[in-house]
Amino acid sequence: MAGIFFQKREVVVPGQLLAEGRYRPSVGTYDREGKIYSALVGLAELRGNTVKVVPLEGVYIPREGDLVIGTIQIVAGNNWKVDIGGPYQASIHANNALRRPYDDDISKYMDCGDTIVAEVSAFDRVTGPFLTMKGRGLRKLDDGMIVRVSPAKIPRIIGRRGSMINMIKDNLNLQTVVGQNGRIWVRAPDVARSRLAVEAFKMIEEQSHTSKLTDRVDAMLKEELAKLESKDEENEDNEETEKDEESEDEIE
Amino acid sequence: MSPETKPDFLINPEGLRLDGRRPDEIRPTELEVGILKKADGSAMIKQGNTHILAAVYGPRELHPRHLTLNDRAYLRCEYRMATFSVPDRKRPAPSRREREISMVISNALEPALFLEEFPKAVVDVYIQVIQADGGTRCASINAASLALADAGIPMRSLVPAVAVGKADDKLLVDLGDMEDKYGGGDIPMAIIPRTEEITLLQQDGSFKKEELIEAIRMGINSCKYLHELQKEALKRAYAKRAPAEDDEEDEYEDDLETDLGESDLPEEED
Q: How far is it, in rounded angstroms, from Cα A127 to Cα A129?
């Protein structure tokens, strides 16, 4: 009996039979004797004749071409060792980060604790992930903040063709870099807006498996922004009074 | 705690056990997934009076480095009993028995996992027995496999486990502490339900060949029942985290409109 044994976006568990017959197994599934089973807890999906399970949890496993945000942990000769989350520590060679000629002491350019945006240039089962910073937008980060979310939720945060992240950026007037490893760099015009950005990301993380999420996040941000603006107006009035009080204190 | 006395009979004349169960009945079992916030995956099991917590971390970087396996992740299980989990205080130092059970659990779970997806890494499984009343190794496997699934570790299947034992020459499923102590032996077993592959089979006491075969058959049946409970617990945990899809309409419900008397009309919007 051939066919599909799940509903669209159904929560499936490991070992559950998903499909039989002329279907192709993809991420989150495995096949035995022509039957496709789920390997994860997640949402089952059918694209064409490819069956996949979108994970709801999981650590970051690097893939070539991923944009990641990492923290430098060790400066080793002409390499930096970079924490990109997950089980594997990445390394980046100075040749792939700096313009030659560069000084022997590469800690002058980037040192432990610095945060960088880089791309995974090579990763296979034998050699650990290697990064590169040769490319547009790949750089050391000097300001802004990092929000950490589960790497499994990153596709949802980006949205279809960037719809979700662009909506958040437009609403809050942000600059962002979304790393596939679950770290998001945010630079917002003020503290209140960066708080809102964090709130939006957390909301997506918690409700990632529901539909029409973009609209709801949009509504939430618009509502909060409206509150913020009215509060700003109040604050402006208050600030004036506070200043008066302060000056009075000084007099005392 | 008064010293325990051997019960007069493990199976009463009506054929029921100490706690009123039938021979092929498992203890009331409660499973809950995702109860620890810090862990990557976690689960709790209450099987009768046996209470166990399991937490999974990883896959993550392996320390110490010399344990690294180049072709797959290392599965490191740690089974520990709380000092207060048994009537006589359990000494807190890891015992020989705990180390053995840790190894046994790890071997029972490993065939179900796709560890080759994470070479050189480690998956840590911590199992803490809060209250012990027999069957802790099997209950630990039940909980640990749920915690592994919750952590997003790819696996072939959940792994249910149960102990089958013998008392008064009758085979009993899911032994309690008394039945374990005063009965004629027990066989803990774990299976991969779809293929009925056995991933754990131990025995103490003596069984006839026919008894062993019958015990395994009973064990497989109970494991399949436990497997249903596990699947249900996992789906429940994720359904709870996901608000039902159709409540989006409710969110935008406007009280002002209900007065128009039109709100009862079903809306065909998507």
A: 7
Q: Considering only CB atoms, which residues of chain A are within 8 Å of chain B?
A: 11, 13-16, 28, 30, 37, 39-42, 55-59, 61, 86-89, 125-126, 152, 206-207, 209-212, 216
Give chain A's length. Answer: 252
Interface test with B, best of A32, A33, A59, A83 (most B CBs within 10 A): A59
Partner residue opposite A11 with nearest CB, options B152, B157, B238: B238
Nearest Cβ partner of A14 from B71, B157, B251? B157
| Spatial separation of the C-alpha atoms in residues B55 and B130, rounded to whole Å | 13
Q: How far is B235 from chain A (nearest CA, A)?
A: 7
Which residue is listed with tokens 């944009």?
A: A67
HEC profile of B246-270? HHHHHHCCCHHHHCCCCCCCCCCCC
Per-residue DSSP letter, B207: -
> Does the beta-carbon distance from A216 to B241 stay under 8 Å?
no
Q: Please, what is the end-to-end C-alpha distance for chain B in angstroms?
A: 63
| B260 is a domain residue | no
**Best CA proximity match to B156, nearest among A93, A136, A31, A99:** A31
The two three-digit tokens of residue B126, written as one number: 């911590």
B184 touching A (Cβ < 8 Å): no
Residue range(s) defining the domain that contains residue B81:
29-238
For residue A54, give the chain B residue with the closest CA: B152
Within a domain: residue B168?
yes
Here the tokens at position A212 are 């029409």
pTM over 0.90: no
Domains plus CATH for chain A? 8-55 (2.40.50.100), 67-141 (2.40.50.140), 145-218 (3.30.1370.10)
How high is the pLDDT of residue A54? 87
Structure tokens at A137: 């937008």
Q: What is the mean pLDDT of residues A210-236?
A: 86
**Pairing assessment for the beta strands A24-25 and A50-55 based on DSSP bridges:** parallel
CATH classification of the domain holding B223: 3.30.230.70
Residues 189-228 of B with CB under 8 A from A: 192-194
Confirm or reject contact between B69 and chain A (CB < 8 A): no
Q: What is the mean pLDDT of each run of 10 residues along chain B (270 residues)?
A: 74 90 94 94 96 96 93 96 95 96 97 95 97 95 97 96 93 93 93 96 94 96 96 88 42 29 36
Does the residue B35 lie in any domain? yes
Tell me how many domains chain B contains: 1
- Whether B133 is in a domain gets the answer yes
